[in-house]
Hints:
41% helix; alpha+beta; 3-stranded antiparallel sheet; 3 domains
Amino acid sequence: MSDFTTTIGLEVHCQLLTQAKMFCRCSTDYIGKEPNTLVCPVCLGLPGSLPVLNQKVVELALRAALALHCQILPQTLFHRKNYFYPDLPKGYQISQYNLPIGIDGFLEFYSQGVRKKARIRRIHIEEDAGKLVHEGAFLPPGTSGVDCNRCGIPLVEIVTEPDLSSPEEARDCLMMLRNIVCYLEVSDGNMEEGSLRCDANISLSSSSLTGVKVEVKNMNSFRSVYRALSYEVERQRKLLEEGKPVFQETRHWDEIKGVTVSARGKEEAEDYRYFPDPDLLPFSLKTEMIEEIKSGLLELPLEKEERFMTQYELSQGEAEILVQDREIADFFEDTLRNFNKPRMVCNWIVTEVFRNLKELGTTISRAKITPSHLAELLKMVDRKEISGTMAKSVLEEMFTSGARAREIVTRRGMALINDEKELENIVKEVIEKNPQSVADYLSGKEKALQFLIGQVMKETRGQADPELTRNILIKVLSSEE
C-alpha cells in the first residue's frame, strides 16, 4: 500500500451572539419562528434599502480574532460575493475578501494526548443566507420553499491553514475552536441548530503525487466531521492506488449512508466576482477598542486545562473533560473552595453529576444543586458519615428537590455503621448463613469475599462502612481456617 500524507484545512462559520442582524434591526432569534416573519427590505435586499453595520458584530469578531492570536488589520471593508442560489434573495452575500478583520493567527489543542497547533489564515465577517425548506405545514405537498429569516444573520468565518494531518486532529481542532467561541460568548456553538458549521478541505499526496483539494460540506457534528473525513481519506487513497484521478470538487456528507457524494466543481475566488460593496464604506478599528476587548478576554480553554493539570494535579484527560464547558469548569473550582480535594471532586463531577444532568436533560447552570451543596455531600463521604453508594442516592434527590445533603440524610435516617463491635456481630451472622461462600473463600476464591460483603450491605441496608466491613470479614474468616 502506498504511503500517503493527509492534509486537512477547516473553514468554520460561527453565528455571532447578537440580538439584531448584521445590517438591520431584525431579530436573530429565528429558531422555531414562522418562515419569513423576521425580515425587512434590508435583509431581503430590496431596491433602495441601505445596510447599516451592527457595531456588536465587529466587537464579537474582534474578540474571536484576538483570542486566536490574529494580527488585526487597521482598516477593513466589505465586498459583495456574487452567486445565485434560491435562498440568497439579493443574488450576492456581503462578506470580506482581501481585507478581513484578522489574519495570521493560530489555535493550539490536544489530539490523542499530544499538543498540536493549527495556523489561522484569516477571520472575516459575513452575513448568512436563508434556508431552503422541503417540508412543513405551510408548504403544499411535493413543493419546496425559501425561509429568509436567517438572511443577514452575522457570522464569522475562521479559516485554518492546511496544518491538520488526520480526521482525529480535524475533529479535536474543531472541538477546541468551539470551546473558545463559547467561552468568549462569541457564539453558542450549537452545531445541531447551525450556529457552528464546518467545511473541510482535504487532499492526499505522496512523494510522487501532488494532492488535489476536495471540499467536504454538510457535517453537523464532531462525529460527522470525523466520519466524513475518514471516509474521504479512504476514498481518495483507493483512487490513487488504482491510478485513477481525484477531481477538485465539492462533496456533501450523507450521514445516513456514511458516504460523501459529489455536489459540484469547486469554485475559486474569481467565480464569485468580488467587488467592494458600494453601500458600505471602508472602516478603521480604533486602537482603544482593540485594547479594551483584549484586556477583557477570559482565560481560554487550553490555558484553563493546563492550569488544572498543574494546580490540581489532574490528568490531561480529566482536565479536558472539565474545561469543555466553562460552567462546569467554574462549578468544579467553586466546589473546591469548600472542599479542597480536586481528584475526588473531579471524579464525582464527571461521573455522578454528569449522569444526573443527562437524565434530567438540564445544564449545570439550571440544576438545583450548587457547588456548596456538592461540597457538603463530599465532606460527609470523606468523613465516612455516609458511604459512596448512599451519597449517590442522596445526590439524585439533591438534583430533583434542591435539598441539602445533611437534610436528606437526617430525614432518611441514613448513617454509616462504623461501630466495630456492631459490625462484627452482623458479619458473624452473615458467615453463619453462607457456609458455601465461606468455604469458597477459604479455598482461594476472592469473589466469594465480595459476595459476603454484599450480604453485609444487604443486612444493613447499605449503611455498613465498606472498608471496615471488608477488614472485619477478613479477620473473622482468617480465624475459621
